[in-house]
């Protein structure tokens, strides 16, 4: 493999400054002397885009006219994070930007901070999509990311005086959309509703209404690949912008109604994490972006052709379905092939099944998306017919394979009974070539439990691709101190494009000088985070304490409850003197999490965490020993600041529930040690970094299964562990609610009577491992050695490796220009 070092553009900083000045004066109409930071930000973005434009055009041209199959990544979410630093890095313009902007009299840091990050995703799933498009471009693979241009992304979170989550709309487009290029000449019509009629031998869909899908294109520059791919996000518009007749009758609101209705489709990202809200609008969103994307791919690869040979479609592009949200694309492609282009069923089915692949992101059966057939029928009547026909043929195929009737019934895509449901995961499994899980354990459980019937009938369809994260954003940009140290240690910066090279750091774990430097880098990162946090949140964590972080969506299965109960137990031990103050390792426990607005239990947990933080931080007895910090609005920006500063990373989900996790990878790569269960990718992280460098605790999958089968009694654990009983009783007695004993009642009741995710059962083991962790931490050099070994052995968790796995096992394509 060629070693790729950091790219550097030919453009000089003088040229950069001149371009920014010209942009300010000639396009934005402001003199540099009177420009504000936001003006400069806008101008800088334009200059960077301009600089990437030739490569973008060349990449698109090669993609369309070459013979390398492209990847179409279909995802309802992209949690992008800030674009400017990443684009500068990949374009090789970072130095020129810094010097150029400074020469104009501005602070580069402030210009970077002027960006409002596009939060077009909820959490891990959307962030994964963003990592994958970065890696595809960096590997030089022709690809489109397809998604939705939500006007409002994930809500902004704040807390009220009681510590409750308050959601605010995220109007990320307030300052315009300087990275996006709206392409009005490539809009697509997307239709809904109506009926299907028989015309001769054909079924003809007569839709009731339609919207215009307008693409907004974002450049996706590869790191050191010279390629620039496209992220194409669709925005919904009305065809009847404005009804003048209605307006002239003075019905001003009525005149804009069709416009408002159409634009609603791309108005807002659903703030759901893994459970489903059965909303028509959500199905509209899904169909809207998938239908536009399929039409777009055909128009792109068969330009100007009335009768394209779509039998070649699977050689031009393969669509990856990021979870079930885009699965309606399978019947849509069937419809397009049969109704619009006249293919017969078998030809259409062969094309479709070779074009799609499906990534499953869950194991929770209740999180597998299902739509009522009635809803699909009213919104997409022709698609329902096609789905029913897929189901009918599938059932007869199963019968001819000798599959038993019980198993066939379990596998039906459309369920039987009075209110039939369409199971989108099953449709995706049947209608595509491959299904993959996102970590080894998850892929195995998919085959053995969630999709067992399918893996029996189609064993060759099932694959694993363990998730990854992009080293550009999550190491190189987020952690410049560590990046410089790695580059020094390895003697090259080629690791940024080839993360397996980190393995070369392993011997340095025994080099006292390197270990010392590593300790200094972590210390500096903690100080930087403390300063950032003071500016942003008015709270300054003490860098002399251990930074112990749990940051992720708030979900019962992720068990933030376990962490907060352990914090309460520790607080109680300090208060009642069971813990000797001299023996306590000072910690700052940092939470970051948003809860879905309708998820009551998660929101109550947020309130509890905030109130525990309030009580502990106002108690002089715990000062300097234990502190709890819950910065609001966990997002990519906060992740990039916090992760490099963290000592201990918490990955404490119930075994068998977290499909993979990706923050676990970010932390390991940034030199934090993990305390975690054998769940998701934790298993593979531990295997790689070594059991001695990972703090394992808790029940494992077979024990969890056995407890479910035998009958799980959470109260018995509460009775058996005094620390747990004390902590739960404190919550119940109102210590964290100004004496109000009802405040956390649903939470306490759940812990004692149901506790589906077995927080009570894992509590003792979790408390017991703390002394191991604390002893390890007291040995500063020893801890740093373990952390270095985590970094050195986590190169596997690069999203470049994950994308290469997809290319080899599933997509069967590769970089441009190598055909
Ligand atoms: C990485 C990341 C996630 C995913 O975290 P998990 O712990 O893997 O669930 C969610 N949100 C943000 C902002 C992230 O950066």
Automatic annotation (TrEMBL):
Assigned keywords, A-Z: Carbohydrate metabolism, Glycosyltransferase, Pyridoxal phosphate, Transferase
Enzyme Commission number: 2.4.1.1
Catalytic activity: [(1->4)-alpha-D-glucosyl](n) + phosphate = [(1->4)-alpha-D-glucosyl](n-1) + alpha-D-glucose 1-phosphate
Entry cofactors: pyridoxal 5'-phosphate
Amino-acid biosynthesis recorded as keyword: no
Similarity section: Belongs to the glycogen phosphorylase family.
UniProt cross-references to PANTHER family, sorted A to Z: GLYCOGEN PHOSPHORYLASE, GLYCOGEN PHOSPHORYLASE, LIVER FORM
General function of this protein: Allosteric enzyme that catalyzes the rate-limiting step in glycogen catabolism, the phosphorolytic cleavage of glycogen to produce glucose-1-phosphate, and plays a central role in maintaining cellular and organismal glucose homeostasis.
Protein name stated in the entry: Alpha-1,4 glucan phosphorylase
Species this protein is from: Bifidobacterium favimelis
């Amino acid at each position: 493999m060629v070693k790729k070092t950091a790219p550097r553009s030919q453009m000089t900083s003088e040229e950069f400054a001149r371009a920014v000045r010209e942009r300010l004066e000639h396009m934005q109409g402001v003199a540099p002397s009177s420009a504000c930071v936001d003006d400069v930000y806008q101008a800088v973005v334009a200059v960077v885009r301009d600089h990437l434009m030739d490569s973008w055009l060349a990449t698109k041209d090669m993609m369309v006219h070459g013979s390398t199959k492209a990847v179409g990544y279909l995802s309802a979410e992209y949690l992008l994070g800030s674009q400017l630093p990443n684009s500068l890095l990949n374009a090789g313009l970072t130095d020129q930007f810094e010097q150029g902007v400074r020469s104009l009299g501005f602070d580069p840091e402030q210009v970077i901070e002027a960006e409002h990050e596009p939060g077009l995703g909820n959490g891990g799933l959307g962030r994964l999509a963003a990592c994958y498009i970065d890696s595809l471009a960096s590997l030089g693979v022709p690809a489109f990311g397809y998604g939705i241009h939500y006007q409002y992304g994930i809500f902004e979170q704040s807390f009220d005086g009681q510590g409750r989550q308050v959601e605010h709309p995220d109007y990320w487009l307030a300052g315009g959309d300087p990275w996006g290029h709206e392409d009005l000449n490539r809009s697509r019509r997307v239709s809904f509703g109506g009926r299907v009629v028989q015309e001769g031998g054909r079924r003809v869909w007569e839709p009731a209404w339609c919207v215009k899908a307008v693409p907004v294109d974002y450049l996706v520059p590869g790191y050191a690949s010279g390629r620039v791919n496209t992220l194409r996000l669709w925005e919904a518009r009305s065809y009847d912008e404005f009804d003048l007749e209605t307006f002239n009758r003075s019905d001003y609101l009525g005149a804009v109604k069709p416009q408002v209705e159409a634009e609603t489709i791309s108005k807002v990202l659903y703030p759901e994490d893994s459970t489903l809200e059965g909303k028509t609008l959500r199905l509209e969103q899904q169909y809207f972006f998938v239908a536009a994307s399929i039409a777009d791919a055909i128009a792109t690869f068969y330009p100007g052709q009335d009768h394209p040979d779509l039998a070649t479609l699977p050689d031009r592009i393969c669509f990856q379905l990021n979870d079930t949200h885009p699965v309606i694309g399978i019947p849509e492609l069937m419809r397009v092939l049969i109704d619009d282009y006249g293919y017969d069923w078998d030809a259409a089915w062969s094309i479709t099944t070779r074009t799609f692949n499906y990534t499953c992101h869950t194991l929770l059966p209740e999180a597998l998306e299902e739509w009522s057939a009635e809803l699909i029928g009213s919104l997409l009547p022709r698609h329902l017919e096609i789905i029913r026909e897929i189901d009918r043929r599938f059932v007869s195929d199963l019968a001819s394979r000798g599959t038993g009737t019980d198993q066939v019934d379990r596998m039906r895509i459309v369920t039987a009974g009075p209110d039939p449901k369409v199971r989108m995961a099953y449709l995706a499994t049947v209608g595509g070539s491959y299904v993959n899980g996102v970590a080894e354990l998850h892929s195995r459980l998919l085959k053995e439990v969630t999709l067992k019937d399918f893996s029996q009938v189609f064993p060759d369809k099932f694959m694993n691709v363990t998730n990854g994260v992009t080293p550009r954003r999550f190491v190189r940009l987020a952690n410049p101190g560590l990046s410089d140290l790695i580059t020094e240690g390895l003697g090259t910066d080629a690791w940024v494009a080839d993360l397996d090279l980190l393995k070369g750091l392993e011997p340095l774990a025994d080099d006292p000088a390197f270990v010392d430097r590593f300790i200094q880098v972590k210390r500096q990162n903690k100080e930087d985070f403390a300063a950032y946090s003071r500016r942003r949140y008015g709270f300054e964590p003490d860098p002399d304490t251990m930074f112990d972080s749990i940051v992720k969506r708030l979900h019962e299965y992720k068990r933030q409850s376990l962490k907060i109960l352990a914090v309460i137990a520790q607080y109680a031990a300090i208060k009642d003197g069971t813990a000797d103050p001299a023996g306590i390792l000072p910690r700052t426990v940092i939470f970051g999490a948003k809860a879905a607005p309708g998820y009551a239990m998660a929101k109550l947990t947020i309130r509890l965490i905030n109130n525990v933080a309030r009580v502990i931080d106002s108690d002089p007895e715990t000062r300097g020993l234990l502190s709890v910090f819950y910065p609001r609005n966990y997002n990519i920006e906060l992740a990039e600041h916090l992760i490099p500063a963290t000592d201990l990373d918490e990955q404490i989900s119930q075994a068998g529930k977290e499909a993979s996790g990706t923050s676990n990878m970010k932390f390991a790569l940034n030199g934090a040690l993990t305390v975690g269960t054998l769940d998701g990718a934790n298993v593979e992280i531990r295997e790689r970094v070594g059991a001695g460098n990972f703090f394992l605790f808790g029940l494992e999958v077979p024990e969890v299964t056995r407890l479910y089968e035998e009958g799980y009694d959470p109260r018995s654990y509460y009775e058996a562990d005094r620390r747990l009983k004390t902590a739960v009783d404190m919550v119940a007695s109102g210590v964290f609610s100004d004496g109000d004993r009802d405040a956390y009642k649903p939470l306490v009741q759940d812990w004692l009577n149901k506790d589906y995710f077995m927080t009570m059962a894992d509590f003792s083991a979790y408390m017991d491992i703390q002394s191991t962790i604390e002893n390890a931490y007291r040995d500063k050099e020893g801890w740093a050695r373990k952390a270095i070994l985590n970094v050195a052995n986590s190169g596997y968790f690069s999203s470049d490796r994950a994308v290469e796995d997809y290319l080899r096992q599933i997509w069967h394509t590769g970089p441009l220009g190598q055909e």
